From TrEMBL:
<dbReference type="GO" id="GO:0000160">
    <property type="term" value="P:phosphorelay signal transduction system"/>
</dbReference>
<feature type="domain" description="Response regulatory">
    <location>
        <begin position="66"/>
        <end position="185"/>
    </location>
</feature>
<dbReference type="InterPro" id="IPR029062">
    <property type="entry name" value="Class_I_gatase-like"/>
</dbReference>
<dbReference type="Pfam" id="PF00072">
    <property type="entry name" value="Response_reg"/>
</dbReference>
<dbReference type="InterPro" id="IPR001789">
    <property type="entry name" value="Sig_transdc_resp-reg_receiver"/>
</dbReference>
<keyword id="KW-0597">Phosphoprotein</keyword>
<keyword id="KW-0902">Two-component regulatory system</keyword>
<dbReference type="InterPro" id="IPR011006">
    <property type="entry name" value="CheY-like_superfamily"/>
</dbReference>
<feature type="modified residue" description="4-aspartylphosphate">
    <location>
        <position position="117"/>
    </location>
</feature>
<dbReference type="GO" id="GO:0009736">
    <property type="term" value="P:cytokinin-activated signaling pathway"/>
</dbReference>
<dbReference type="InterPro" id="IPR045279">
    <property type="entry name" value="ARR-like"/>
</dbReference>
<protein>
    <recommendedName>
        <fullName>Response regulatory domain-containing protein</fullName>
    </recommendedName>
</protein>
């Protein structure tokens, strides 16, 4: 079995920036359309942000996502194919990297996503990954079944540096397979969103008049950049995720920062619409996190 390249060997191939994943749980296009229908049924004019979201989702998400799966293990290949078909994906399978690259280069079949094993019979996965990301805009998810967590982490790091949109351990859980559409949407948004589209989306957000207040209870609230990824996901949910915040009217995001270490019984109160508690550890913050969760439930 060929070894993964070491960090020192990574200069042999061009490096690409890792990509963040969208953190959603339901198809956005259906949610956006449902929101517009609800608005029109209630006699309200469709909100600009909802209209923009519907247009974006219709363009970004194909009706049927076609996945190219590359794996030299026939058992794993068949199992993954069955799982993908069960979730209504179109699937084409290959056992070798050269065969898959030939199909991609011919362009006779339109694919939306590539799933590849780390070790292929005819080439190492990093070489296949580099070819796909250099020649196409297709998102690539790498898979592996490394013997331990350290090897798995090393493989994930190498793959993300070479442009993979994600790395998953085999066998892929059903939840991962169900949410593969997210990678397709992100890649297609990157291709289709020009200056005019970003301007329209930004203006729709700037013109919002109502707001939703979210209390974020955490350990490093004095260093808000520690939660930058969380904040960006929340902001994204307001801008283009109708299922999260549109519900008949779009809202501007407002975050109330609460230090978990400062919470006591009498201070565990907030006027926010919801409470978000990111993961954290330590004797000073866990009691506050528990108080916040208790307050939210009661």
């Amino acid at each position: 079995m060929p070894a993964l390249p070491s960090p020192e060997d990574m200069t042999a191939l061009p490096r690409r920036r890792p990509h963040a994943n969208l953190l959603h749980h339901h198809p956005l296009r259906a949610a956006a359309a449902t929101t517009l229908v609800q608005q029109m049924a209630s006699g309200c004019a469709a909100s600009p942000a909802a209209s923009v979201a519907v247009d974006i989702m219709n363009k970004a998400l194909p009706d049927h996502i076609h996945v190219l799966v590359v794996d030299g293990d026939s058992t794993s290949l068949k199992a993954l194919e069955s799982s993908l078909l069960a979730h209504n994906y179109k699937v084409t399978t290959c056992s070798e990297g050269t065969e898959a690259l030939s199909m991609l280069r011919k362009g006779e079949v339109k694919f939306h996503l590539v799933l590849s094993d780390t070790y292929l019979p005819d080439m190492i996965g990093c070489k296949f990954l580099n070819c796909v990301t250099s020649e196409t805009y297709l998102p690539v998810i790498m898979m592996s079944a490394e013997p331990d967590e350290e090897a798995e982490a090393h493989a994930a790091f190498i793959h993300m540096c070479f442009g993979a949109r994600g790395h998953r351990r085999k066998p892929l859980p059903e939840t991962v397979i169900q949410d593969l559409w997210q990678f397709v949407m992100r890649a297609r948004l990157e291709q289709m969103m020009g200056p005019a589209e970003w301007t329209e989306m930004a203006e729709s957000y700037d013109n919002l008049t109502s707001s939703v207040n979210i209390a974020l209870v955490g350990k490093y609230t004095s260093l808000t950049d520690s939660y930058l990824s969380v904040v960006k996901v929340l902001l994204l949910s307001v801008v283009i995720c109708p299922s999260a915040c549109l519900c008949g009217c779009s809202m501007r995001l407002s975050i109330q920062w609460i230090a978990a270490s400062d919470l006591e019984d009498e201070s565990a109160r907030t006027s926010s619409s919801c409470i978000l508690i990111p993961g954290g550890f330590g004797d000073r913050i866990v009691p506050g996190m528990i108080l916040a969760a208790k307050y939210a439930r009661e």
